[in-house]
TrEMBL record:
This is Uncharacterized protein. PANTHER family: HEAT SHOCK PROTEIN-LIKE PROTEIN, HSC70CB, ISOFORM G-RELATED. The lineage of its organism: Eukaryota, Haptista, Haptophyta, Prymnesiophyceae, Prymnesiales. Keywords: ATP-binding, Nucleotide-binding. GO terms for molecular function: ATP binding; ATP-dependent protein folding chaperone.
Length: 280
Protein backbone atom coordinates (compact mmCIF):
# COMPACT_ATOMS: atom_id res chain seq x y z
CA UNK A 1 0.00 0.00 0.00
CA UNK A 2 1.01 3.62 -0.50
CA UNK A 3 -0.56 6.92 0.49
CA UNK A 4 -1.45 9.28 -2.35
CA UNK A 5 -2.14 12.99 -1.96
CA UNK A 6 -5.45 14.50 -3.03
CA UNK A 7 -4.83 16.33 -6.30
CA UNK A 8 -2.13 13.87 -7.28
CA UNK A 9 -4.02 10.72 -6.37
CA UNK A 10 -4.94 9.76 -9.93
CA UNK A 11 -1.39 10.22 -11.20
CA UNK A 12 0.08 8.42 -8.19
CA UNK A 13 -2.35 5.54 -8.64
CA UNK A 14 -1.41 5.20 -12.31
CA UNK A 15 2.30 5.23 -11.52
CA UNK A 16 1.91 2.66 -8.75
CA UNK A 17 -0.21 0.46 -11.00
CA UNK A 18 2.48 0.57 -13.68
CA UNK A 19 5.25 -0.18 -11.16
CA UNK A 20 3.25 -3.04 -9.64
CA UNK A 21 2.59 -4.51 -13.07
CA UNK A 22 6.26 -4.32 -14.04
CA UNK A 23 7.39 -5.79 -10.74
CA UNK A 24 4.77 -8.51 -10.70
CA UNK A 25 3.14 -7.25 -7.50
CA UNK A 26 -0.53 -7.10 -6.63
CA UNK A 27 -1.63 -3.54 -5.84
CA UNK A 28 -4.15 -3.96 -3.04
CA UNK A 29 -4.80 -0.39 -1.85
CA UNK A 30 -3.88 3.22 -2.64
CA UNK A 31 -5.27 5.24 0.29
CA UNK A 32 -5.05 9.00 0.30
CA UNK A 33 -2.79 10.68 2.85
CA UNK A 34 -5.87 11.64 4.87
CA UNK A 35 -7.19 8.07 4.89
CA UNK A 36 -3.83 6.72 6.04
CA UNK A 37 -3.54 9.31 8.81
CA UNK A 38 -7.12 8.59 9.82
CA UNK A 39 -6.48 4.86 10.16
CA UNK A 40 -3.48 5.52 12.39
CA UNK A 41 -5.37 8.08 14.45
CA UNK A 42 -8.36 5.80 15.05
CA UNK A 43 -6.02 3.28 16.60
CA UNK A 44 -4.29 5.82 18.85
CA UNK A 45 -7.08 8.23 19.78
CA UNK A 46 -7.68 8.04 23.57
CA UNK A 47 -11.42 7.47 23.72
CA UNK A 48 -12.79 6.75 27.17
CA UNK A 49 -14.78 3.61 27.92
CA UNK A 50 -17.82 5.82 28.41
CA UNK A 51 -17.46 7.12 24.82
CA UNK A 52 -18.22 3.70 23.34
CA UNK A 53 -21.07 3.86 20.86
CA UNK A 54 -21.33 7.64 21.19
CA UNK A 55 -20.67 10.63 18.96
CA UNK A 56 -17.46 10.84 17.00
CA UNK A 57 -14.79 13.54 17.21
CA UNK A 58 -14.11 16.04 14.41
CA UNK A 59 -10.40 16.67 14.16
CA UNK A 60 -8.13 18.77 11.99
CA UNK A 61 -4.87 16.98 11.15
CA UNK A 62 -1.94 18.88 9.67
CA UNK A 63 1.00 16.84 8.38
CA UNK A 64 4.04 18.79 7.14
CA UNK A 65 6.55 16.19 6.07
CA UNK A 66 9.80 16.06 4.15
CA UNK A 67 8.36 16.69 0.68
CA UNK A 68 4.65 17.42 1.09
CA UNK A 69 1.88 18.81 3.26
CA UNK A 70 -1.55 17.37 3.96
CA UNK A 71 -4.38 19.04 5.86
CA UNK A 72 -7.47 16.95 6.59
CA UNK A 73 -10.63 17.20 8.64
CA UNK A 74 -11.54 13.76 9.92
CA UNK A 75 -14.45 12.34 11.88
CA UNK A 76 -13.20 9.64 14.23
CA UNK A 77 -15.83 7.38 15.74
CA UNK A 78 -15.32 5.79 19.18
CA UNK A 79 -15.25 2.02 19.54
CA UNK A 80 -18.65 0.34 19.52
CA UNK A 81 -20.46 -0.53 22.70
CA UNK A 82 -19.72 -3.96 24.14
CA UNK A 83 -21.48 -6.70 22.24
CA UNK A 84 -24.05 -8.86 24.00
CA UNK A 85 -23.11 -12.44 24.73
CA UNK A 86 -23.37 -14.64 21.67
CA UNK A 87 -22.84 -11.81 19.18
CA UNK A 88 -19.94 -12.95 17.00
CA UNK A 89 -20.04 -10.06 14.56
CA UNK A 90 -16.60 -8.66 13.81
CA UNK A 91 -15.84 -5.21 15.23
CA UNK A 92 -15.67 -2.37 12.68
CA UNK A 93 -12.36 -1.97 10.89
CA UNK A 94 -10.23 1.11 11.46
CA UNK A 95 -11.30 2.60 8.13
CA UNK A 96 -14.97 2.15 9.04
CA UNK A 97 -14.45 4.35 12.10
CA UNK A 98 -12.88 7.22 10.17
CA UNK A 99 -14.56 9.52 7.65
CA UNK A 100 -12.57 12.05 5.64
CA UNK A 101 -14.74 15.18 5.66
CA UNK A 102 -12.26 17.38 3.77
CA UNK A 103 -8.71 17.08 2.50
CA UNK A 104 -6.19 19.48 0.94
CA UNK A 105 -2.67 18.56 -0.06
CA UNK A 106 0.42 20.02 -1.69
CA UNK A 107 2.97 17.43 -2.74
CA UNK A 108 5.63 20.10 -3.32
CA UNK A 109 5.51 21.88 0.03
CA UNK A 110 7.64 20.33 2.74
CA UNK A 111 10.82 20.61 4.76
CA UNK A 112 12.92 20.05 1.65
CA UNK A 113 11.44 23.25 0.21
CA UNK A 114 12.19 25.19 3.39
CA UNK A 115 15.78 24.00 3.27
CA UNK A 116 16.09 24.81 -0.44
CA UNK A 117 15.12 28.43 0.28
CA UNK A 118 17.70 28.64 3.06
CA UNK A 119 20.31 26.97 0.84
CA UNK A 120 19.89 29.65 -1.83
CA UNK A 121 20.20 32.39 0.82
CA UNK A 122 23.39 31.05 2.39
CA UNK A 123 24.95 30.02 -0.93
CA UNK A 124 24.62 33.61 -2.14
CA UNK A 125 26.24 34.90 1.05
CA UNK A 126 29.14 32.44 0.79
CA UNK A 127 29.79 33.20 -2.86
CA UNK A 128 29.78 36.92 -2.13
CA UNK A 129 32.27 36.54 0.73
CA UNK A 130 34.53 33.74 -0.55
CA UNK A 131 34.11 34.02 -4.30
CA UNK A 132 33.22 30.34 -4.56
CA UNK A 133 29.86 28.93 -5.65
CA UNK A 134 28.13 26.22 -3.64
CA UNK A 135 25.89 24.09 -5.81
CA UNK A 136 23.34 21.55 -4.66
CA UNK A 137 24.11 17.92 -5.36
CA UNK A 138 27.86 18.37 -4.86
CA UNK A 139 30.04 17.60 -1.85
CA UNK A 140 30.07 21.28 -0.98
CA UNK A 141 26.32 21.40 -1.39
CA UNK A 142 25.83 18.40 0.90
CA UNK A 143 27.99 19.95 3.63
CA UNK A 144 26.08 23.21 3.46
CA UNK A 145 22.71 21.46 3.36
CA UNK A 146 23.63 19.46 6.46
CA UNK A 147 24.54 22.63 8.36
CA UNK A 148 21.34 24.37 7.21
CA UNK A 149 19.14 21.50 8.36
CA UNK A 150 20.82 21.62 11.76
CA UNK A 151 20.22 25.37 12.09
CA UNK A 152 16.57 25.03 11.11
CA UNK A 153 16.00 22.30 13.67
CA UNK A 154 17.81 24.25 16.41
CA UNK A 155 15.55 27.23 15.75
CA UNK A 156 12.62 25.09 16.90
CA UNK A 157 13.90 25.43 20.48
CA UNK A 158 15.96 28.64 20.53
CA UNK A 159 15.63 32.19 19.13
CA UNK A 160 18.99 32.11 17.35
CA UNK A 161 21.13 29.24 16.07
CA UNK A 162 24.42 28.62 14.32
CA UNK A 163 26.25 25.70 12.75
CA UNK A 164 29.44 25.09 10.81
CA UNK A 165 29.73 23.78 7.27
CA UNK A 166 33.03 21.98 7.67
CA UNK A 167 35.72 22.09 4.98
CA UNK A 168 33.38 23.97 2.69
CA UNK A 169 35.79 26.23 0.78
CA UNK A 170 39.33 24.89 0.22
CA UNK A 171 39.70 23.53 3.74
CA UNK A 172 37.86 26.48 5.33
CA UNK A 173 35.08 25.83 7.84
CA UNK A 174 32.25 28.27 7.13
CA UNK A 175 29.93 29.24 10.00
CA UNK A 176 26.30 30.06 9.29
CA UNK A 177 23.94 31.82 11.65
CA UNK A 178 20.22 32.59 11.62
CA UNK A 179 17.58 34.01 13.95
CA UNK A 180 13.90 33.12 14.12
CA UNK A 181 12.98 36.55 12.75
CA UNK A 182 15.26 36.03 9.74
CA UNK A 183 13.85 32.54 9.25
CA UNK A 184 10.32 33.95 9.29
CA UNK A 185 11.21 36.52 6.64
CA UNK A 186 12.92 34.00 4.37
CA UNK A 187 10.20 31.38 4.62
CA UNK A 188 7.22 33.77 4.56
CA UNK A 189 6.08 32.73 1.04
CA UNK A 190 6.13 29.03 1.94
CA UNK A 191 4.45 29.54 5.31
CA UNK A 192 1.85 31.55 3.41
CA UNK A 193 1.15 28.50 1.23
CA UNK A 194 0.57 26.34 4.31
CA UNK A 195 -1.76 29.00 5.73
CA UNK A 196 -3.67 29.16 2.43
CA UNK A 197 -4.05 25.37 2.51
CA UNK A 198 -5.48 25.57 6.02
CA UNK A 199 -7.76 28.52 5.25
CA UNK A 200 -9.13 26.69 2.25
CA UNK A 201 -9.98 23.46 4.05
CA UNK A 202 -11.45 25.25 7.07
CA UNK A 203 -13.59 27.57 4.92
CA UNK A 204 -14.93 24.56 3.02
CA UNK A 205 -16.49 23.36 6.30
CA UNK A 206 -17.99 26.67 7.49
CA UNK A 207 -21.46 25.22 7.96
CA UNK A 208 -20.16 22.26 9.95
CA UNK A 209 -20.07 21.86 13.71
CA UNK A 210 -16.97 23.18 15.57
CA UNK A 211 -13.88 21.02 15.62
CA UNK A 212 -13.16 18.93 18.70
CA UNK A 213 -9.38 19.04 18.38
CA UNK A 214 -6.33 19.40 16.19
CA UNK A 215 -3.40 17.05 15.62
CA UNK A 216 0.01 17.99 14.23
CA UNK A 217 2.39 15.50 12.64
CA UNK A 218 5.56 15.62 10.57
CA UNK A 219 8.99 17.14 11.16
CA UNK A 220 7.92 20.51 9.79
CA UNK A 221 5.36 20.97 12.57
CA UNK A 222 8.20 21.27 15.09
CA UNK A 223 8.83 24.74 13.65
CA UNK A 224 7.23 27.51 15.74
CA UNK A 225 6.46 29.35 12.49
CA UNK A 226 4.14 26.59 11.36
CA UNK A 227 2.62 26.15 14.79
CA UNK A 228 1.75 29.86 14.79
CA UNK A 229 0.27 29.61 11.28
CA UNK A 230 -1.92 26.72 12.43
CA UNK A 231 -3.16 28.57 15.52
CA UNK A 232 -3.89 31.74 13.52
CA UNK A 233 -5.80 29.78 10.88
CA UNK A 234 -7.92 28.13 13.56
CA UNK A 235 -8.61 31.45 15.28
CA UNK A 236 -9.82 32.96 11.98
CA UNK A 237 -12.25 30.10 11.30
CA UNK A 238 -15.73 29.71 12.82
CA UNK A 239 -15.23 25.97 13.29
CA UNK A 240 -11.67 26.34 14.59
CA UNK A 241 -11.91 29.38 16.86
CA UNK A 242 -13.32 27.43 19.87
CA UNK A 243 -10.15 25.28 20.01
CA UNK A 244 -7.56 27.82 18.83
CA UNK A 245 -6.25 28.28 22.36
CA UNK A 246 -6.10 24.55 23.09
CA UNK A 247 -2.85 22.63 23.03
CA UNK A 248 -2.16 20.99 19.69
CA UNK A 249 -2.32 17.21 19.93
CA UNK A 250 0.73 15.07 19.18
CA UNK A 251 -0.81 11.60 19.11
CA UNK A 252 0.69 10.78 15.72
CA UNK A 253 4.39 10.38 14.98
CA UNK A 254 6.42 10.80 11.81
CA UNK A 255 5.73 7.19 10.77
CA UNK A 256 1.94 7.44 11.11
CA UNK A 257 1.30 7.99 7.39
CA UNK A 258 3.18 4.81 6.47
CA UNK A 259 1.68 2.84 9.36
CA UNK A 260 -1.85 3.89 8.44
CA UNK A 261 -1.31 2.94 4.79
CA UNK A 262 0.05 -0.46 5.90
CA UNK A 263 -2.98 -1.02 8.12
CA UNK A 264 -5.34 -0.28 5.23
CA UNK A 265 -3.30 -2.56 2.97
CA UNK A 266 -3.43 -5.39 5.48
CA UNK A 267 -7.18 -4.98 5.81
CA UNK A 268 -7.55 -5.07 2.02
CA UNK A 269 -5.48 -8.25 1.77
CA UNK A 270 -7.17 -10.11 4.61
CA UNK A 271 -10.65 -8.87 3.87
CA UNK A 272 -11.06 -8.24 7.59
CA UNK A 273 -9.92 -5.86 10.28
CA UNK A 274 -6.39 -6.12 11.56
CA UNK A 275 -5.45 -6.90 15.16
CA UNK A 276 -7.05 -4.52 17.58
CA UNK A 277 -9.69 -3.21 15.18
CA UNK A 278 -12.50 -1.50 16.97
CA UNK A 279 -10.25 -0.49 19.84
CA UNK A 280 -8.49 2.84 20.38
Amino acid sequence: PAAATGGEATTAHARLSDAASIGGWKLVAVPSAAEALGAALVRKYPFKESDAGGEGKRLLVLDVGHTGTCAAILKIDPPPAKKPAGDDAAPPAYTERCTVLAEATDGALGCVDFDATLFAYFAEQIESKHGEAVVGGTRRGLRLATAIERVRKLLSTMPEASATAENLIDGIDVPIKLSRDELAELLAPLIGKVRALLDGILSSMQAAEPLDGVEAVGGGMRMPLLQTALIEALAASPIGAPIAADKVGLKLDDASLAVGAAMIGKQAVSGAAGPGAGTP
